[in-house]
Automatic annotation (TrEMBL):
Transmembrane in keyword set: yes
Keywords assigned by UniProt, alphabetized: Membrane, Transmembrane, Transmembrane helix
Name of the protein in its database record: MFS transporter
Classification of source organism: Bacteria, Pseudomonadati, Pseudomonadota, Gammaproteobacteria, Lysobacterales
PROSITE patterns (UniProt xref): MFS
SUPFAM superfamilies: MFS general substrate transporter (SSF103473)
InterPro entries, A to Z: MFS, MFS_dom, MFS_trans_sf
Every Major facilitator superfamily (MFS) profile domain range: 11-389
Pfam families: MFS_1
One term of GO molecular function: transmembrane transporter activity
Listed transmembrane segments: 143-163, 169-187, 215-236, 248-267, 336-358, 364-385
Amino acid sequence: MMRAVRGLPRTVWLLGLISLCNDAASDMIYPLVPLYLASVLMAGPKVLGLIEGVAEAVSSLLKLFAGVMADRTRSVRAWVIGGYALAGFARPLIGLSTSWPGVFAARFADRIGKGLRSAPRDAMLGLSVESERRGLAFGFHRAMDNLGAVVGPLAAALLLALGLSLREVFLWSIAPALVVLALTLALKEPPPAAATTHEARRWTFAGLPPAFRRYLVTLGLFTLGNASNMFLLLRAQDLGASAERVTLMWAVYSTVASLGSTPLSALSDRLGRFRVLGGAWGAYAAAYLLLGLLPAADWALWLAFAGYGLVTAALEGTEKALVADMVEPARAGTAFGWYNLVAGLLLLPASLLFGALWQSVSPFAAFAFGAACAGAATLLLATWVRAAVPAAAPMFAPPRRQPR
């Protein structure tokens, strides 16, 4: 495994380092936002759902725009640089906010940056390796991303232990953001993929394979029950965990996700995307049920966060590798734009539904709804989506024997 990882192209490694530093900046503040809203700004779950849902929805629309424009211009580097820069300078502004609309504005700008960079970056990553190593490449990228999500909460916990306020921790997130900007400037524009059809530059579903369209519908159902992870942090606080323990639980989640992303996503190169992704979605349903049933913030909650990290490790890289397998290279940006659009746009109703069920019924009702959506999506993936994929497609082709 390590030999295969070391053999990945320079672009994959550089994008991995960028994600590591960016998530270190992001996750310094991510687990603290719900605590800041609840304990400092006195805002509840509905406000949290509104902020995260709207911000992610707008981000998702921009992901489609940026993906299509990257295909049209045959250029991705500028989108990646601009997106990371905007997000990096927006996050510290949360610490200057004195009301929840200020937090909303900062998160909104942060998610705009993510929207501009995500699809072009994923297209750059997918075009950097051959199909039989896509699971490994996307898994490695997610591993580095999640490693940054370990460093960030640990840094936040250290700063809190040293006596800094929540606002001061938000302001310190500018430091890793500056490193991210320097690394993005070192990226090189990849060779443009040759367009095989005129439809490669359209905004619509025209020209996209039927199996990919079905995959997007199924992904939408899964996402409808996949509310913002901030609700997991709010659940930990609701069960009695302190701010320091919440950040450490998030670090445990991120550590497990980081360690598992590369081997579990690479497993899809050998066992097939559908087997690994279906198993991950099914395990996701079980994890949500467990989180909804837990009675207190004891050792079981730590195990639940670790298990959720393992589930995340298996699904994140595999989902994207499946996108790259299903479409031609000239439509990579557009396909990842649609993937990110669906995955992010439905976070608005997902987060609003989750917050409403939590506040109006119970936390368990919210988590049970998410589990039901994940279970139904798992069945559709194994039947309806898989039936539309040609047997000779990359995700079904016999894997090449890797050199020892």
